[in-house]
Amino acid sequence: MSSPPAERPPVDPPPPRARRPFEAWRKLALAGALILLVGSVLKAALDDFPNALNVLSLGLGWGFLAAAFGRAMVDRKARERAEAAEGKPKELS
Predict the structure, then answer these.
(1) Which helix (H) or strand (E) holds 61?
(2) Cα(93)–Cα(78) distance, rounded to whole angstroms?
């Protein structure tokens, strides 16, 4: 004979995360990736695609991606400083 199943206390659902606006660094990264994609597709599709435009699209695409990385690091440091000022413990992720 088995014992009756134990009753479990109800589990509260996790609180909904506050949706942050689309950060600037994500917009920069998306723009850089799209520029690289369009430049690569045009270079592959057109035999007479000007080399100057290819170099320009590569420079702009990688420039936007580098700017996005820099912006993400600045945002992260600002968020860490704000959390330290509030006295929140640092989370490991």
Answers:
(1) helix 51-86
(2) 17
Q: What is the pTM of this model?
A: 0.66
H or E element, residue 14: none
Whether 35 and 63 have beta carbons less than 8 Å apart is answered as: no
Residue 92's alpha-carbon distances to 60, 73, 89, in angstroms, are 34, 17, 10
Q: Give the amino acid at 35.
A: I
* Residue type present at position 83: E
Please identify every stretch of the chain with a pLDDT value under 70, giving residue numbers as ranges: 1-4, 6, 14-20, 88-93
Q: What count of other Cβ atoms lies within 10 Å of the Cβ of residue 64?
A: 20
